[in-house]
Write a structure and sequence with these properties.
mainly alpha
Length: 88
């Protein structure tokens, strides 16, 4: 079992209601698990935002030659995806 840190704090009434709802719905067994779920979701959102920024920065700084290569790759992948029969 991973080492856990003990904290003592207060939360807003809305936060309390949300945490209780997570527990009642069965998504969390207790307050600690509910807080972990909320924190994990926040971390995922932060990671997605950092990836979006890094991706935008990457494409913003591409040379025209590399932009052309990226465009060719996208076109190839679009054609290839169009040939896939997802119903098989």
């Amino acid at each position: 079992m991973a080492y856990r840190k003990k904290i003592s704090t207060t939360i807003s009434p809305d936060g309390y209601t949300f945490i209780r709802r997570l527990i009642r719905s069965g998504k969390a067994k207790n307050f600690a698990e509910a807080f972990d779920l909320v924190i994990e979701e926040s971390l995922r959102a932060d990671n997605r935002a950092r990836l979006e920024r890094a991706t935008a920065e990457y494409f913003k700084n591409l040379s025209p030659e590399v932009q052309a290569e990226e465009h060719e790759l996208v076109e190839f992948l679009n054609r290839a995806a169009g040939e896939i029969d997802f119903d098989e």
